[in-house]
TrEMBL record:
Domain 6-phosphogluconate dehydrogenase C-terminal: 160-287
Family stated for the protein in its record: Belongs to the 6-phosphogluconate dehydrogenase family.
Protein name (Swiss-Prot/TrEMBL): Decarboxylating 6-phosphogluconate dehydrogenase
Gene that specifies this protein: gnd
Keyword match Oxidoreductase: yes
InterPro entries membership: 6-PGluconate_DH-like_C_sf (IPR008927), 6DGDH_YqeC (IPR004849), 6PGD_dom2 (IPR013328), 6PGDH_C (IPR006114), 6PGDH_NADP-bd (IPR006115), NAD(P)-bd_dom_sf (IPR036291), Pgluconate_DH (IPR006183)
Keywords: Gluconate utilization, Oxidoreductase
One Pfam entry name: NAD_binding_2
Record NCBIfam families: gnd_rel, PRK09599.1
Amino acid sequence: MEIGLVGLGKMGGNMRERIRRAGHTVVGYDRDPKLADVGSLKELVQTLQAPRAVWVMVPAGEPTDATIRELADLLSVGDLVIDGGNSRWTEDVKHAELLKEKGVGFVDAGVSGGVWGLENGYALMVGGAEDAIGRVMPIFEALKPEGDSGFVHAGAVGAGHFSKMVHNGIEYGMMQSFAEGWELLEAAPQVTNVREVFRSWTEGTVIRSWLLDLLVRALDDDEHLSAIRGYADDSGEGRWTVEAGIDMAVPTPAITASLYARFTSRQEDSPQMKAIAALRNQFGGHAVHKD
């Protein structure tokens, strides 16, 4: 099968390679000419044989909006766009309607696998019409892990990115739990080998997981994480998960707390903690730490 791929960064570049290894033709475009197979979106569309399929793998928000708007003007009736970035699911509906006016189909694909996906495959959560998904199923088969799992047609347009959003919200909570446990163990004077405690959990325990394996890997590189600043970005999905929980009256306290913990990481001297310290001093006479 032949497919166009827009965005050849860490994820997109590896996806291009994995698809090609499966015997398919990929025409790739990226703003960095050193990565691209063609010089523009227009050239990419002209290179592909109709009916075309174009996979968009660029950052969420305006980059995705701009790419899909440009593709809407370049593609023809019967063509198909797959958004495999981390777009918010509400944007999928807007993009699908825009492309529908041009006679172009739309599929949203939540993609998980990170830099390991080239060798291990990518988990794919896909939203859209059955016939549209069927058209590009050979590409999904090439990208997903070997075996029967790793791919799901989650539902209508938006379902793929909604599912990926919840996946990432769960990931926030799991990572926060591991981080809190690590800090607590590091603070305990009687525990002298924290790294190996974590390693011991990778076999036989109910919390064994790939995330745990990756934390052990990180501790092998830097046992006390002394070279890393305690600052963590959030890429959007955690916020969207919390907002969806509010909209649907579904409580998400663990995910919400993990998101707020990331906000705390950005403050070298938390203003909130200043107020709490001051209050503790006022009502209980507790000492405050001053600069």
